[in-house]
Amino acid sequence: MADKWIQGAIKNPGALREKMGAKAGENISKEKISSKISQLQGEAEGDKKLSEAKRTMLKQLVLARTLGKMKK
Length: 72
What we know:
The chain has 72 residues and is mainly alpha-helical. The chain has four helices and no strands. The protein has helices at residues 5-9, 15-20, 30-43, 52-69.
């Protein structure tokens, strides 16, 4: 089970790709992921809070960035 943690972490495969407007099978560039993370974190500065949908997207983006750094 420990070697299959990624499958458990990804509840809705393709959800981030759909939100980012990428076609099926098309990779999302690291630059797009980083810029979107920065944008969402900028919206949450100070006392401001993100909506539930934006928080979910931020979590998906951070996971995508982490998985992109992993070796195959």
